[in-house]
Here is the input.
Amino acid sequence: MSQESRLGKHGVENVRCTLIYNPFSGQNRQRRSEQVGRVAEALRELGHEVELVSTTAPGSATDQTRDAVAHGAEVVFACGGDGTVHEVVQGLVDEAGNHRASLGIIPMGSENALSRNLGISFDPVKAALEQLQGTVQTIPVGKLAYGEQVRYFVLMAGAGPDGALVHSLTSKQKSRLGRLAYYVHAARLFATRQFPAFKVEYTRVDSETSITANAVSVMVVRAGDLGGLFSKLTDRQASIHERQMRLLVVRGPGIISLPLWFLSGWLNLSRFNPFLKFVQVSWFSCSSSAVAAPYFQADGEWLGQIPFECSLVPDALRILVP
Here is the structure.
């Protein structure tokens, strides 16, 4: 269970808020800047302290979030799409649980997967006000360790076709085409590319046994609905509040199992798919001996090529829920 409290400990008055946004993202940049400005104005009218921070480069939102928290921000609003949310999360996660600020979201992207699962309004001002009047929940986050790097995720991570799909899309394409970009590139990838098997090792929660298998795709999903074309391909019971991971494993051959994964999901017949397995795990890793190792991603952001290890960090992120 998540730890939950009211933001009312601040009396919903004089909350120090930082709004982080990318001024160069989206098709209508002027409109986005105006929307962020309206949110700031509405919050100030209610007595909140507000600082606007525009990103300066890819990934800058993480350090800007840490800087805002160091200077007393109690809520950091990620104003944008899933990429902006992902960067802000990196700056707010605390594995020791010593939280000083909470994550708020003003959805302005093409997917907005986390916002949809939390029921956050797509009206920017309404979204901010409802979150400040809602609850603060402390949730686990996923942790990917690869090489010398660490990346956290809230909703999902995976290797195989999803990693290849994210890698093939540029930020400009996602901005211009939105969800359509994913559909077009997904169709092209499935039609033209072969996905070789790689090794996945995981520890089952129920038996604490370690299992090694071959797969052409693995995904850990912490939400019941990823939206759009992918809405029926994962475990509908998944939740960001779970203290374990639901791992989806698709075994080869990919030329058969990957199309069947989509077909069985949309026909609600996944339980009869012999190539598909859902398993509750506390840890898993992916590795490959191939020169061209599969790509992997977290929350829709491409990170690199396997190997990596994945675990779950309890009570690592505070988030506002309307």
Summary: The two ends are 18 Å apart (CA to CA). The chain has a mean pLDDT of 86. DSSP finds nine helices and 16 strands in the chain. The chain has two domains: 3-140, 145-314.
